[in-house]
C-alpha cells in the first residue's frame, strides 16, 4: 500500500510539473526584434485595422477622444465580465514604460511583462498572425498617443476562470500560427485575409465558440450568439452575405447597407476604424469574405 501511495504521489507531482511546464509564459526577446525600426505613419493604419480604440477608448468616444486608450469598457461573457484596461502611454496606469519586446509578447503570446496570462477576451490569438514589422510600426505610433492616468478596473471573473495559469492550457488548444482560409488566393484576397484574420479579428464576433470559449474554426464566420445575450451576430460567408464586393467595401466605409439600413452596436466603432483605411484595404476584405467557404 505504501508503494502504491508513493507511486501515486510521484505520478501526481510529475503531472503537475508537466502541466506547469506546458503552460508557462513564453516571452519574445529583444534579440528577436533586432533590426526592426517602427514607422509611426504606417503604424497608424495598423492601429485602425487592429481595432485598438474600439475596446480601449471610452464608451461612445468619437474623433480625437478615440485615441485616449484609458479603458473601462465592459464586455460580458459566459465566463464573467471583462473590463478593458488602460493601455495608454501613461507609465504608471498604462503601458508607457513597456519595451517593444513586451508589447509584442502581449500581442502575440498573451503574456504580461510580469509573466501573467491575459484572458483571451484580448484577441492575441488573432494578433499572433500579424507581421512583426507591422507591430513595430504600431508601437511607434503608440508613442504619439496621449497618456491617461485612469486606473484600470479589475475583471469580474469568478473561480475557476480566475486562475490565470489555466489560460496557458487554453492556449495549447487555441493558439495557432496558421490562417484559417488556405488554398490559392489572389494577392487581394490574401491581403484581405491578413486584415480580417490577423488584425481586425473579425472572427472574434462572427464565429461561434466551443464550450471552452475557443473559436470553432470549422464554422468560420458563420455567425454567433451575441455575447450580450441579445440576438445573434450575422454570418459573413458568401451564401449568407449576398452583397457585392463593392457593397461590402462601401458598408465598411460609411455603415450603410445596400438596403439603406445602417450599422448598429459595436459595428459602429468597427466601421469608424475601417473608414480610416485605404479603399484598397476595404475592397481586399470584401474579396476575402467572398472567398470564404459557404456555410453548409
UniProtKB/TrEMBL annotation:
<dbReference type="GO" id="GO:0020037">
    <property type="term" value="F:heme binding"/>
</dbReference>
<dbReference type="InterPro" id="IPR009056">
    <property type="entry name" value="Cyt_c-like_dom"/>
</dbReference>
<keyword id="KW-0479">Metal-binding</keyword>
<dbReference type="GO" id="GO:0009055">
    <property type="term" value="F:electron transfer activity"/>
</dbReference>
<dbReference type="GO" id="GO:0046872">
    <property type="term" value="F:metal ion binding"/>
</dbReference>
<dbReference type="InterPro" id="IPR051459">
    <property type="entry name" value="Cytochrome_c-type_DH"/>
</dbReference>
<keyword id="KW-0408">Iron</keyword>
<keyword id="KW-0349">Heme</keyword>
<dbReference type="InterPro" id="IPR036909">
    <property type="entry name" value="Cyt_c-like_dom_sf"/>
</dbReference>
<dbReference type="Pfam" id="PF00034">
    <property type="entry name" value="Cytochrom_C"/>
</dbReference>
<protein>
    <submittedName>
        <fullName>Mono/diheme cytochrome c family protein</fullName>
    </submittedName>
</protein>
<feature type="domain" description="Cytochrome c">
    <location>
        <begin position="38"/>
        <end position="146"/>
    </location>
</feature>
<feature type="domain" description="Cytochrome c">
    <location>
        <begin position="187"/>
        <end position="293"/>
    </location>
</feature>
Amino acid at each position: 500500500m505504501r508503494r502504491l501511495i508513493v507511486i501515486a504521489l510521484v505520478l501526481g507531482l510529475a503531472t503537475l510539473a508537466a502541466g506547469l511546464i506546458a503552460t508557462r509564459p513564453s516571452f519574445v526577446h529583444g534579440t528577436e526584434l533586432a533590426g526592426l525600426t517602427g514607422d509611426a505613419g504606417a503604424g497608424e493604419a495598423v492601429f485602425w485595422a487592429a481595432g485598438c480604440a474600439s475596446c480601449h477608448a471610452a464608451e461612445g468616444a468619437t474623433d480625437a477622444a478615440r485615441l485616449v486608450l484609458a479603458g473601462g469598457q465592459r464586455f460580458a461573457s459566459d465566463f464573467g465580465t471583462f473590463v478593458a484596461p488602460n493601455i495608454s502611454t501613461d507609465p504608471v496606469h498604462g503601458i508607457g514604460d513597456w519595451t517593444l519586446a513586451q508589447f509584442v509578447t502581449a500581442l502575440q503570446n498573451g503574456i504580461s511583462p510580469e509573466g501573467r496570462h491575459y484572458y483571451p477576451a484580448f484577441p492575441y490569438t488573432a494578433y499572433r498572425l500579424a507581421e512583426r514589422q507591422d507591430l513595430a510600426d504600431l508601437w511607434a505610433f503608440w508613442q504619439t498617443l496621449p497618456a491617461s492616468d485612469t486606473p484600470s478596473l479589475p475583471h469580474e471573473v469568478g473561480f475557476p476562470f480566475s486562475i490565470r495559469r489555466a489560460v496557458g492550457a487554453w492556449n495549447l488548444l487555441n493558439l495557432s500560427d496558421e490562417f484559417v482560409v488556405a488554398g490559392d488566393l489572389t494577392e487581394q484576397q490574401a491581403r484581405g485575409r491578413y486584415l480580417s484574420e490577423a488584425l481586425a479579428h473579425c472572427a472574434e464576433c462572427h464565429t461561434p465558440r466551443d464550450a471552452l470559449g475557443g473559436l470553432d474554426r470549422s464554422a468560420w464566420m458563420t455567425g454567433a450568439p451575441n455575447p450580450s445575450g441579445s440576438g445573434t451576430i450575422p454570418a459573413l460567408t458568401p451564401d449568407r452575405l449576398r452583397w457585392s464586393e463593392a457593397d461590402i467595401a462601401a458598408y465598411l466605409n460609411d455603415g450603410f447597407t445596400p438596403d439603406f439600413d445602417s450599422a448598429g452596436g459595436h459595428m459602429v466603432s468597427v466601421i469608424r476604424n475601417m473608414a480610416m483605411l485605404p479603399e484598397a484595404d476595404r475592397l481586399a476584405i470584401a474579396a476575402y469574405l467572398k472567398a470564404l467557404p459557404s456555410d453548409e
